What does this fold into?
Amino acid sequence: MKILFLGDVMGRAGRAAISEHLPRLREAWRLDFVVVNGENATSGVGLSGDHAKVLLDAGADVITLGDHAFDQKDMLTFIANEPRIIRPLNFSKAAPGAGARVFKAPGGRKVLVAQVLGQVFMKRPFDDPFSALDALLRQYPLGGQISASLIDIHCEATSEKMGVGHFCDGRASIVVGTHTHVPTADVMILPGGTAYQSDAGMCGDYNSVIGMEKTEPMRRFVTGMPKGRFTPAMEEATLSGLYVETDDRTGKALRVQMVRQGGRLSPAGPE
It folds into this structure.
């Protein structure tokens, strides 16, 4: 199976990059399944229902969220009626929606998609991601009723992301990090057959401070004093993510490659 994961969509520029590039990539790379992290797609904080529709209409099969899952209040009701949106598995038990679901892919294949939040350096205390994933992956082992599984680990610490990767090695097809908006250069297949990257990067304007227009973040770093609000940078965005090919029988990764399309970063992707 050919699977594409795209990192945090950042504001209007990120949405535009998805709308511009994803339909072309689905066709050119003959993608079977696409997952997009959309938790910063609306003004850099959260995801609205209208902007979720934009990402889904562009070709996303599933949208994952993150710690800003419900910053846009209409998502509290929208997610209850849109099964293609996944909130974190270890979020509040009172939160609407689901943290994991099995989705249909072409040819009768099934894909498990889940997201967990990390605990290290995060502003809020979330439930243990390891125990949440352990129960889930015991329920949906590779080579069973699912053809592939993707885990989005949304957290600050690369060490925690790597810990999750090794914890899931051989149990999930893909473990990919989000949240820091900076793509990492550690794309690999772990010894047990799980494709891994610490952070997929963002789909946003990289002439910025992690997707935000530079002036206000730099003022705060230099002076320690805020003056205005953070606003998403608006120049051309780079589409950033991870491309993985999996074995339908075992669910293990056969090939993995970073993806860069448009914008400022060097182009990369499957040939």
Q: What stands out?
A: The chain is about 25% helix and 25% strand. The mean pLDDT is 95. Residues 2-206+237-261 form a domain with the Purple Acid Phosphatase; chain A, domain 2 fold (CATH 3.60.21.10).
